[in-house]
Design brief:
Elements lengths: L5 E6 L8 H15 L3 E6 L6 E6 L2 E6 L8 H6 L4 H11 L4 E4 L2 H7 L8 E5 L39 H23 L3 E4 L2 H7 L8 E3 L25 E4 L11 H8 L6 E4 L5 H5 L5 E5 L3 H10 L3 E3 L9 H9 L3 E4 L14 E4 L4 H13 L1 H18 L2 H18 L3
Parallel strand pairs: 1-2, 1-5, 2-4, 5-6, 6-7, 7-8, 9-10, 10-11, 12-13, 13-14
Antiparallel strand pairs: 3-4
Length: about 400
């Protein structure tokens, strides 16, 4: 029988206050613990004051509340704050594996790369795109795998002098190359989807590159008796995510308008730069803000459908995985790794980016056709069990860990 491992997670986010990447890290930690392995977490937060805390029995090192934040990338590279904690834990706790979960986490975890095998999970486009969105931006240093989307005017300024643009591009390209240098030191790189795997071939050698999706703990979705903290309508559509243009949140009022008078409202969970404009867009769109994860699950179990009108290539949305497990059909744009979660016509529908009329038509069909909705609910839960089960995904991670440990000369 293989001995238990000690795994040090270095991550950009972790519950209780977290978006999808932090919850994915948390559930993987739970899966590892359930099989007898020890997990410790360090948050790659740009702060000098790092404190030992605890969440659900896991030791978690995170910034003290109210401490000053610095530039994340420069701070991480210099090995201050969380980098110092990682080095201390490598000496005192002797982890078998250090597993970095994001770009700033990689920069911090890199301080342990020469002493302990380093595994890196890539959940967005940061190794090949400076902004991590795979959307062209201004100023843009250039994309290593080709521009996939029109320029996003919300980034940068077209009014800056051209010399300033050239300087920024040079600095940004240098930082992008530095990420790839750090990535090259990893014993293994895990892509969260086949779409990400194809993209990473440009910067990671095939023997070190693996595809392992995020996992979903289906036991959390075994009942629909979850309590909601507010009075909700009997029928509603649901959006969960950052309220930003690259997520397509600005399209929600137009989708609601095309659903027609008297249609169920769209409930919006999340926050971000578009929150104020969405709150004032009309009664058919209701912004709930950020809510506890258990309440998000309860909303998914009651929603007609989850709406994801994203513009950027979604690598592998955790929101989609949770919707599958909840039996909530998904209507999403066909970008990135979304089709690896959404089986079009079986667990939901896929549309072209910006096609709000098609999205509205699919949403109306799910609201009016009970047989269709029931069929997709069943298929969604079956797909979650088949492809994203927590124990199975944990075992795939363990295989990568043990192979890295076996190759390590120490």
């Amino acid at each position: 029988m293989s001995r238990p491992l000690r795994i040090l997670f270095v991550t950009d986010a972790f519950p209780p206050h977290s978006y999808g990447s932090g919850w994915s890290t948390y559930h993987l930690a739970r899966g590892l613990r359930a099989q007898g392995h020890d997990v410790c977490i360090v948050l790659a937060q740009p702060s000098l004051r790092i404190a030992a805390t605890e969440y659900d029995g896991f030791p978690v090192w995170r910034a003290r509340p109210g401490t000053r934040a610095f530039n994340p990338a420069l701070f991480a590279i210099n090995g201050l704050g969380p980098g110092r904690i990682v080095r201390r834990l490598v000496r005192s706790w002797s982890p078998d594996i250090v597993h970095a979960q994001h770009i700033n986490a990689l920069l911090v975890a890199n301080h342990a790369a020469r002493a302990v095998p380093l595994i890196v999970t890539v959940r967005d486009h940061w190794p090949v795109c400076f902004y991590g969105t795979a959307l062209a931006n201004a100023p843009c240093p250039g994309c290593l795998v080709g521009t996939r989307s029109p320029c996003n005017p919300q980034r940068g300024s077209d009014h800056a002098p051209e010399a300033m643009h050239l300087l920024k591009r040079a600095v940004m390209r240098g930082m992008l190359r530095q990420r790839q240098v750090f990535l090259s030191r990893a014993a293994a790189v895990i892509a969260a989807s086949d779409a990400m795997h194809r993209e990473l071939r440009a910067v990671v050698s095939p023997p070190r590159l693996h595809t392992i999706p995020n996992a979903v703990d289906r036991s959390l979705f075994s009942t629909d008796d979850g309590m909601l903290s507010r009075d909700e309508p009997t029928q509603f559509y649901l959006y969960v995510g950052k309220l930003s243009a690259h997520k397509g949140a600005d399209l929600l009022p137009e989708i609601a308008r095309r659903l027609g008078r008297g249609a169920p409202p769209i409930l919006i969970v999340g926050d971000g730069p578009l929150e104020e404009s969405l709150r004032s867009s009309g009664p058919e769109v209701r912004v709930l803000g950020r809510v506890p994860n258990e309440e998000v699950i309860a909303l998914m179990q009651r929603a007609i459908a989850l709406i994801t009108p994203a513009r950027w290539p979604e690598p592998l949305s955790r929101t989609h995985l949770e919707a599958l497990a909840a039996g909530c059909p998904i209507v999403a744009t066909d970008t990135g790794g979304t089709r690896e979660v959404v089986a079009a016509g079986e667990t939901g529908f896929l549309t072209a980016v910006g096609d709000v009329e098609a999205m509205a038509a699919h949403l109306r069909a799910l609201a009016s056709d009970n047989a269709l909705h029931t069929r997709m609910t069943t298929a969604s839960r079956e797909r979650a069990a088949r492809l994203f089960d927590l124990e199975a995904v944990t075992n795939r991670h363990l295989a990568v860990y043990r192979a890295a440990v076996d190759r390590d000369p120490d």
